[in-house]
Write a structure and sequence with these properties.
It catalyses: DNA(n) + a 2'-deoxyribonucleoside 5'-triphosphate = DNA(n+1) + diphosphate. The protein has 17 helices and 7 strands. By secondary structure, it is of the alpha/beta class.
Length: 360
Amino acid sequence: MPQTDPKTVKAELKKGDLKNLYYIFGKNIPEVEKLTKQIIKAAVGDNEDFALNKLDGRYLDTSELYDMIQMMPMMSEYNCILINDYNCEKPRENMAGLRAEDLNKKLVEVLKDIPEQTVVIFNVTGFEISVKTDYKTGKSIIKDKNKKLSDLAAKVGELVECPIKSENELAKEIAASVSARGALISLDRARELAEMCQSDTLTIKNEIDKLCSYVGSGEITSEVLQNLVHRQSNVTFFKLADAVAAFNKRSAFEALDELMQDKENRVAVLANITGSFIDMYRAACARQRGKQVMDVKEDFAYVWEFKVKNAFRDSSRMSIRRLRECIKILRDTNITLNSGGGDEKTILEQTVTKMLMTKN
């Protein structure tokens, strides 16, 4: 089948139309995870403990995968296999002595013969796939090495993109969600909220909860939005943390300059920067103790797994001692900002400079 969308797949699942191979990707990570859970539910019901195998794409063994695919289901109609974040560009965490083309070829051969009792799901939540837009259809076309795997899914199963929804689409969903909670919001204000949250569905959900708690059965006005909602930036906070980790002064200050455009929420900017470094500190401590991404995600109740994966990646370039020093600098900055002593932008620039000067 050609590339499709979550709505179509959900309609198929309701009819009992389950494919043997799915490849799910897109910038709307919560939707990727939600659709994955719905497919698993359709395949194995409440028997995940017996009928579901979860595999980390970075350590995928194709021989082991073949054996799993051929297994008969236990206590359910289907045997289900979920493979998270297999990246055809770099199929293994350690590629020493290995070629991506050889590993990908073996995987494709294994997937060409999936028996009718098995459902294999590939989903991407922790890395970005290189795509280009087909302006005739509006869909994203994968242009890196992951295209071969996604093309196979489109041919024998389902290739599903979960794109970020438009502000108009989100506005209708926001208005419905607010109304269900007994509050009011106009479509114009709903679009404003979507724009402030950069169409990030998880952020929007959290903001709706906060706003409805504040207004009760009243109306969410533009004034309420401006007072309670932190406007998201196009430059993500973990990119600033990544630049500091790499001692990249130019990238660090470019990110900070972009973040500082939000003059009304500079203290919130500091809170998010601090959060990024705390994420990296947790990841570094976990790595030292031999823990993995899923351990940290579960222990600290992270919603998005890719944030933990980014923290593991970025923290690999920083010692625990250096991370502690950066967090101490951020703590002192927070005290300074709360005391009202000086210009926020200048103080944050000094903070980034101090962190860039720390040593491993």
